[in-house]
Amino acid sequence: MGKVKVRTLGDETLENKQKEKSKQKANEKKLVKGGKGGERVVSVGPSEEEIAKIELPKGTNETEETKVETKKVKTKKFEKKKETPHSKSYLQALKTLDKSKRYSVADGLSVLEKLKRSKFDETVELHINTIETGVSGNITLPHGTGKIVRVAIADDNLLEQVAKGKIDFDILLANPSMMPKLARVAKILGPKGLMPNPKNATLVKDPEKAAESFKKGQVNFRTELKAPIMHLSVGKMSFGPKKLSENISTLIDAVKKEKIRNVTLKSTMSPGIKLEI
After folding, report:
1. Residues 109, 167 share a domain
2. Which secondary structure element, helix H or strand E, spans residue 68, and what is its range?
3. Residues 241-262: tens digit of each pLDDT
4. Which of the chain's ends, N or C, has fewer CB atoms near its CB within 10 Å?
5. What is the number of domains present in the chain?
6. Is the sign of the CA dihedral 26, 28, 31, 36 positive or negative?
7. How far is CA 2 from CA 5, 18, 182, in A?
8. Do 161 and 269 reside in the same domain of the chain?
């Protein structure tokens, strides 16, 4: 007879634990066989292909496509909230605006008043297209622009501040004798359009006198370098039609009608109104 295996009653639990430990040790040996260099490491668990096939539960946002779609929805919601509805009076006035028509200055200002929709005092602007580039000059508006202009006169102390990047002025005036010193900060002032220049009346023999003129409403006008167009402020809506009309006429005369192709009137929040000059 062969050998008879005798099992002791009550030791099944102990035997199962020993089997589990043996399996665990076998798996560990398969995972890293001795830990020597160059030996193969066996990965335990599902492969990348199997993970990719697993469907995510509903409501999760783990995939890149889902994240992109969620971002698009949030962006659309933000854009909708950002829109400001027009008032009924604005929409009614907009219907009366004929975009193909050229209005007289008086009629244009009348339409502009009806199109006003903000609570703050809007700036009134003229956008002038000229027949060529290089049109420039300066003029003092009868009623100013309504804007507080910060005028500075170049001196050693001011140029030191500019060199440090501190600029707290809108217009910089200088005597021609300051040009050698101004050259040191030309790279800072030039791109901002603040470099004193005789063409825009900011490089003058008497900077103090020029400063008074700018504070009273003197405006420099000049076409853009690469386009025959200029954008100018001619006052505030609170000025009323009479003062705005006088400022506009003064500016158009200074630019000269024969050099103007067309003029568009608008306020900060309004559409453009073409003017007949």
Report:
1. no
2. helix 64-82
3. 999 999 999 999 999 999 999 9
4. N
5. 2
6. negative
7. 9, 26, 113
8. no
